[in-house]
Amino acid sequence: MTQKIRLATCSLAGCFGCHMSFLDIDEALISVADIVEFDRSPITDIKHVTNCDIGLIEGGICNSDNIEVLKEFREQCKILVAVGACAITGGVPALRNHFELKECLEEVYLKGKGVVNPQIPSDEELPLLTEKVYPIHEVVKIDYSLPGCPPPADAFMELITAIKQNREPKLEYALRHFD
Amino acid sequence: MPQKISPRKIKIDQQDIPFSEGQSIMEAAEQAGVYIPHLCHKAGYKAHGSCRLCTVKASGRWVSACTEPAEVGLQVENNSSELQSQRRAIVQLLFAEGNHHCPFCEKSGNCQLQAVAYSLDMHDAHFAHQFPHRTLDASHPEVLLDRDRCIQCELCVRASKEHDKKNVFALSGRGPHTQLIVNSESGKLKDSEIEKDDEAIKVCPTGALMNRSKPFSVPIGQRQFDNIPIDQQSTGKSGNNEAQP
Ligand code: SF4
Ligand code: SF4
Fold first, then answer.
1. Is B107 inside a domain boundary?
2. CA A156 to CA A162: how far, in whole Å?
3. Ligand 1 atom at minimum distance from B117 CA
4. Does the N terminus or the C terminus of chain B have fewer Cβ atoms within 10 A?
5. Residues from chain A contacting residue B105 (CB–CB below 8 Å)
6. What range defines the domain where residue B51 resides?
7. Which residues of A touch B (CB under 8 A)?
8. Are B118 and A173 a contacting pair at CB < 8 A?
9. Is B207 found in the same domain as B131?
């Protein structure tokens, strides 16, 4: 690969912690910038992903917009990577899977403490919530997973370096923790 | 000429392993410091043979190492890529059929289920997560039972009966409806004979049964399996709630 790797990132039902961990590669960002060109990501503010080598997905699926974005990433990225516990297992947002969606909405918008003008939001502009929160591999095919909450900065480096060198990423013991 | 095998030895992955009469393949392996992945087995307890993680090929047959007696001349295949990938699938199924939120589980780092997953190079659960609805028993001030994390290995059942002489736990129901129940009138831990230092709690390989009195006494990063893989730790030793330094 002599050309720069085109890389896109997004956060679905996540907290941006994984993105922060990616930035934790610190000064290595300079060498990453030599081999990587950012497409859609919070860093560039590009709204749609196009023709990328790697797509990094943080967060699971909790609404219809997440599904659209995820499918667009799958179509546009040669390698799609589930990044972090929420993308891989649903994570904290998936705690709502223990309840009916209706119960969650009622608790937050009708019965919750301090609610004024109680009503369940309903607007065309708002994405519909999925019945359950899903890990992303249940919606599209995923090529690699970087476990962790968040994955360590070195796991991102290993992924990018391996793909640049045309080899399989290898997560050493310290890089495959689930917490 | 085939090599003459000396008496009372089996071979595990080409290595000679001595055994004494009545030992299982697992017991012989543990004695010799050879790691065979397992969850429902614990030295000193009757073999259970339910998690199937210790499946090995013994002279061509698939058997669970914890229940199969060692026999002179047995050729055991243990650490092969075929067996390891099947074991990984078993562990992935265990994660997918429970609710394992490691990032905020107090057992993380001391958990054998997680440690076995790390050791088998598992990065995700692969299968569709079931997100089962299971009940939590937080009725006892010092002991927690979180059924979301229970893998139904029955170690607590055996420990409570055989070691604590109390008979606090049992498995009830069938198939996906199987769950750990508590032997008390209300079905709650608070009305049972459980005490925080019971062996039944210490043997739990996951965060399902925990002593609540010392949460997060050892920080994440310094826990038993944070830096040293389970396959490199002394084989008879099991992670328990009292985090090892
Ligand atoms: S019991 Fe183990 S595998 Fe399950 S959530 Fe806790 S640390 Fe993770
Ligand atoms: S509570 Fe722990 S020891 Fe008891 S069956 Fe569940 S996982 Fe096994």
1. yes
2. 10
3. 3
4. N
5. 179
6. 9-79
7. 82, 85, 88-92, 94-95, 97-98, 132, 134-135, 137-138, 142, 144-147, 149, 171, 173-174, 176-179
8. yes
9. yes
- Which candidate in B124, B218, B227, B233 is best for mutational testing of the A interface (most A CBs within 10 A)? B124
**Position B176 in a domain:** yes
pLDDT of residue B110: 97
Alpha-carbon Rg for chain B, nearest whole angstrom, is: 19
Q: How far apart are CA A141 and CA A79, in angstroms?
A: 10
Whether B227 and A132 lie within 8 Å, measured CB to CB: no
Helices (H), B111-158: 112-119, 155-158
Helix spans in chain B (H): 25-31, 81-97, 112-119, 155-158, 199-202
Residues of B in contact with A174 (CB under 8 A): 227
Nearest to B129 among A89, A98, A145 (CB): A89
pTM metric for this prediction: 0.94
Long-range contacts of B77-84 (CB under 8 A, 24+ apart): B77/B13, B78/B12, B78/B13, B78/B29, B78/B34, B78/B36, B79/B13, B80/B13, B83/B55, B83/B56, B83/B57, B84/B120
**CB of A25 within 8 A of CB of A32?**
yes
Domain count across chain A: 1
What residues make up the domain containing A72? 5-93+133-175
Q: What is the CATH number of the domain that holds B101?
A: 3.30.70.20
Tokens for B239?
Answer: 């992670």
Mean pLDDT across the stretch A37-56? 95
pLDDT tier at B172, thresholds 50, 70, 90: very high
- Is A110 a member of any domain? no
- Cβ–Cβ below 8 Å for A145 and B124: yes
Cα separation, B39 vs A1, whole angstroms:
44
Contact at CB, A147 and B229, closer than 8 angstroms: no
CATH code for position A140 = 3.40.50.700
Neighbour count for residue A164 (Cβ, 10 Å): 16
Structural domain count, chain B: 2
Q: Element (H or E) spanning B146, and its range?
A: strand B143-146
Which residue in the set B105, B109, B124 is minimally distant from A88, CB to CB? Answer: B124
> Does B123 sit within 8 Å of A145, measured CB to CB?
yes
Taking the CA of B238 as reference, the closest ligand is 2
pLDDT digits over A82-111, tens only? 999 999 999 999 999 999 999 999 999 999
